[in-house]
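hiii so um. not sure if this is the right channel but i have a protein structure encoded as tokens and i wanna go backwards to a sequence. like what aa goes where. can anyone help
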């Protein structure tokens, strides 16, 4: 058994529980959608749905989001990704199926219970910042805590912590119109974190930003997640963004989930031609991780170190000083193998 196989088996055995689960979730639109029987319906059979006068925006989705992971949902425009995420929080009511959050079926929850769950356990950030223009940065970030009835001193103290966390300390008194697009999005992120959500939904939060600011926000997001370890559902149509951020990715087409896997799985083992085409232009060095390419054994003393989850493209510059091997470590710094210059060079030459 190779070390990567051993690692995969170990990870499978140690997988955290699902924080959020979809079980046979459908969202149909059209007359009679609520009464349409979906048992036995092929999720890909658009013609059958059309003959019944209904449209399948989400079709028989089954997936689980593990605690502490960044789970990216992606697809082309109209694939159903935003509708699915709104179903997960019941901002849109699913037509059929079950959605379990910490084991509780959200579709059986009363409207009062759903308000409580959204206020205290879920955070949401959307493409459009939706900041309140008449409130300062401090007021915007504290607003959800005000809705919860938190005392002013406590909510402002929490808001200041979140403002500092996203790098906006000193701008508490600014109004949204006085901030750049990237700064406004940071306010939106801080506001969603103020309630300390267990589950964080982000629907294309960076797509309206300029490319440079978008990259900076991705870096900021990665930093925040390293500190907070939230359970995150992140929507994007940009595969480069997905592979930078995701632990796992679900690719959607016509309302159905075509494949769920790590970025490596999708690029190296696509489920069908649609996924293969979706990932065709992605360089392997961006998705293959150090932990998948490493070999058993210890690296020489003093060798540069790299985390097992680091893409090969990011590990390659560490050989610039003449090192022949890198020490591959877990996130907490425990050595688990070595990564050779030759193995990295082979992947880099594959493009």
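sure thing!! here u go:
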């Amino acid at each position: 058994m190779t070390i990567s196989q051993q690692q995969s088996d170990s990870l499978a055995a140690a997988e955290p529980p699902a924080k959020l689960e979809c079980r046979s979730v459908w969202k149909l639109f059209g007359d009679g959608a609520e009464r349409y029987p979906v048992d036995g319906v092929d999720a890909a059979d658009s013609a059958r749905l059309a003959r019944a006068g209904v449209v399948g925006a989400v079709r028989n989705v089954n997936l689980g989001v593990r605690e502490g992971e960044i789970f990216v949902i992606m697809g082309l425009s109209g694939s159903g990704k935003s509708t699915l995420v709104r179903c997960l929080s019941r901002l849109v009511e699913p037509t059929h199926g079950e959605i379990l959050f910490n084991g509780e079926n959200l579709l059986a929850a009363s409207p009062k219970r759903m308000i409580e769950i959204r206020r205290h356990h879920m955070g949401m950030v959307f493409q459009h910042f939706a900041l309140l223009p008449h409130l300062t940065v401090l007021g915007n970030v504290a607003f959800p805590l005000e809705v919860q009835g938190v005392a002013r001193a406590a909510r402002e103290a929490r808001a200041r912590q979140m403002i500092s966390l996203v790098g906006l300390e000193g701008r508490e008194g600014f109004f949204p119109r006085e901030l750049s697009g990237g700064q406004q999005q940071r306010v939106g992120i801080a506001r969603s974190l103020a309630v300390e959500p267990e589950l964080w939904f982000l629907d294309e939060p960076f797509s309206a930003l300029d490319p440079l600011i978008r990259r900076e926000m991705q870096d900021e997001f990665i930093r925040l997640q390293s500190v907070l370890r939230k359970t995150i559902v992140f929507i994007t149509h940009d595969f480069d963004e997905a592979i930078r951020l995701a632990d796992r990715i679900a690719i959607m087409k016509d309302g159905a989930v075509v494949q769920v896997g790590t970025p490596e799985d999708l690029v190296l083992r696509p489920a069908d031609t649609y996924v293969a085409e979706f990932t065709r232009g992605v360089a392997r060095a961006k998705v293959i991780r150090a932990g998948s390419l490493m070999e058993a054994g210890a690296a020489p003393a003093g060798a540069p170190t790299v985390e097992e989850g680091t893409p090969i493209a990011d590990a390659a510059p560490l050989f610039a000083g003449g090192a022949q091997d890198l020490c591959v470590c877990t996130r907490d710094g425990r050595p688990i193998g070595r990564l050779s210059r030759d193995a990295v060079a082979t992947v880099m030459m594959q493009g």
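oh and The mean pLDDT is 88.
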